[in-house]
Amino acid sequence: MTQRPKVRGVLFDIDETLVDLRAAMGTTLQAVSAEDLAHFTATDWDAYTHLFAADPQGHYDAYLAGHLSFSDQRVLRVQHAREQAGLAPLDSDAARAWNEAYEVMLPLHFRAFDDVVPLLDELDARSIPYGAVSNNVHDYQRAKLDAAGLQRVKVLVGTDTVGVAKPDPVIFLEGVRLLGTYPGSTLYVGDNVRVDAEGACAAGLQGVWLDRAGSPSPARRDEDNAVGGAFRTVWSLAEVAELTAR
């Protein structure tokens, strides 16, 4: 088997990789709908938040494809979550007010995962450059990183930076260019198998799937992590430091 090149740079996805967006969504959904949904139990809120975040109807993908505005995809997601919870849909005025309240509240709850800062400290100590490549526009994600206390992530590529979204190779390669590294010696770490791990590999980077839920079996994980495998699997960012030390 061919030995992987030594890691000279690391690129990250943002949502659910660096920033705990789902937790922020859950807190925000409750804050803006507490009166309307006062009858919800903790289990109800978990199901509601999961459905909103999972977006099974693909409204966020429609936004990335240019078929919906960012606000429209969000409203359609909450309308679907309400429908599945047996609630009446929001009318146009209520939907607009809900979205405005959500937009104001959400950034107040952006937080980095606990394993982010220790990894960035390690990369800084070893002079390994890092950055982020995201499937959202640059300025929105820049504000998100800053709100989460991650101003130190200077390199950021958004969908509007190069006009394409992951898994298009162009967006990954722009991140590599800005780091000043080479694709084969650059890790890309993200929580989505297809878009992040497989997409990065297809672009010539070393793809890493961050599976915080720990779903792969040990055998599957060992296969992923074998030299020559398509991508590697980690369960926390602490393991990424180990990959960069090899």
What is the topological layout?
Elements lengths: L8 E4 L8 H13 L8 H13 L4 H6 L5 H15 L7 H14 L10 H10 L4 E4 L4 H10 L7 E3 L1 H4 L6 H11 L6 E5 L2 H10 L3 E5 L7 H8 L6 E3 L3 H7 L2
Helix pairs in contact: 1-2, 1-5, 2-4
Q: What does this 3D model show about the protein?
A:
The chain starts with 8 loop residues before the first strand and ends with a helix. It is of the alpha/beta class. Helices cover 49% and strands 10% of the residues. The longest helix is centred in the first third of the chain and has 15 residues, at 70-84. It has a 6-stranded parallel beta sheet with strand order 3-2-1-4-5-6, with helices on both faces. The model has no long low-confidence stretch (mean pLDDT 92). Helix 10 (193-202) links the parallel strand 4 (186-190) and strand 5 (206-210). The protein has 2 domains: 9-19 and 111-244, HAD superfamily/HAD-like (Rossmann fold, 3-Layer(aba) Sandwich); 21-109.
> How many distinct beta strands?
6
Q: Per DSSP, what share of the residues sits in E-state strands of 2 or more residues?
A: 5-15%
Task: Spell out the helices and strands N to C.
Answer: EHHHHHHEHEHHEHEHEH
Described by strand count, sense and barrel closure, the largest sheet is: 6 strands, parallel
**Total discrete domains:** 2
Number of helices: 12
The secondary-structure class comes to alpha/beta
Mean pLDDT: 92
GO molecular function, one term: transferase activity
InterPro entries: HAD-like_hydrolase, HAD-like_sf, HAD-SF_hydro_IA, HAD_sf
Protein name: HAD family hydrolase
Keywords: Hydrolase, Magnesium, Transferase
